[in-house]
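Sanity check

After download, print the first record. It should look like this:
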Amino acid sequence: MKYLILGAGPAGLSFAAKLRQLGEDSFLIIEKEKEPGGLCRSVTVDGAPFDLGGGHFLDSCRPDINQFLFQFMPAEEWDTFDRISMISLNNKLIDHPIEANIWQMEIEEQVKYLKSAALAGCNLGVEMPEQFIDWIYWKLGKEIADNYMIPYNRKMFADELNELGTYWLNKLPAVNFEEILLSCLKKKAFGKQPGHAKFYYPKHYGYGELWLRMGKELENHIEYNKCAKEINFNQRNITTEDGSRYKADNIITTIPWKEWKEISGMPEHIFNNIRQLKHSSIETRYFPDRLSTDAHWIYYPEQELPYHRILVRHNFCRNSKGYWTETRVERTGMFEESHEGSPRFINTYAYPLNTINKNRIMDELLNWTIERRVYGLGRWGEHQHYNSDKVVELAVKLAEQLEERN
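Expected structure tokens:
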């Protein structure tokens, strides 16, 4: 075939859907699960949708991509929301991001946080540090670092935060000290809005419904229950665990590079570098309680709590109750025994970790594979912490580029 696509998540499905729109019919998707959607799959729990991969929403910041997706699930089937996300600090909820909402704290706390932010290294002309923890203190000051950023990131990503680089921290909301101060004086948030400032969620389904519908339209081009095992770069073919073999002019891989049991024809040093890539695994767990909050999700830096975030389902999913937690798998043993019967799901590959040497590894890897017409795409093909709308944008662009080239 012309294109073999590995993985029927948002990246693989969107790439295939765009190929079809461009008039291309020589493609096949193979998927290890029995249905499409990847991290964005949904199931029914307690009579309402539960998104297996945690908090996945359709951001409104890419209108062209939204219109592309609305071809599969029309706009009238979605609710729109202005994001309400909050942070739990000292048994009180304040709005996210913390830098723009210090004004919601008690006045004594505001003074303490403002003084700390004013003395942050970035405001004193101190050179930007290279290690993650040092960067947090340098950028945000001691109070925000100690009480929120460091404990939260340790819960979500890794116990050893200095394994992470600082190159990705531009994803954080951009709020400078003047805006922090202005927020306290004006008692309103200033600075750049975080991602998903406005988002869509289906009116009557989970987020996985979008990908089920896209998969339905592509069903003659998808083989399920096919787990890729070996990739051979010399022959450009794929072998699956059941012994099936596929060959294509172009291979699009959206699956984690560390999942390959065998890689043939790749230089040893590139193969060894793949083994250095790191990721975190997340458990999602359902609780039926109704929470007294308007928040769509809440961040929890408190170390005594196992989870780092909860998604308040009844505030964005119609006719539902309860909430679900996101917990790094290493911390799930902290749940009380009474919670062991709660519905829960493990996402082995949840978040790519932005380790110090990751960009170097991925640049070398993908430059080498592209020369052999094997293309990494999406969160796992590129090992980047992309949201689904970004993944779809990348998939559409790659389909257009390859079709124009071929």
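If your output differs, re-run the checksum step. Summary of this record's structure: The chain has a mean pLDDT of 94.
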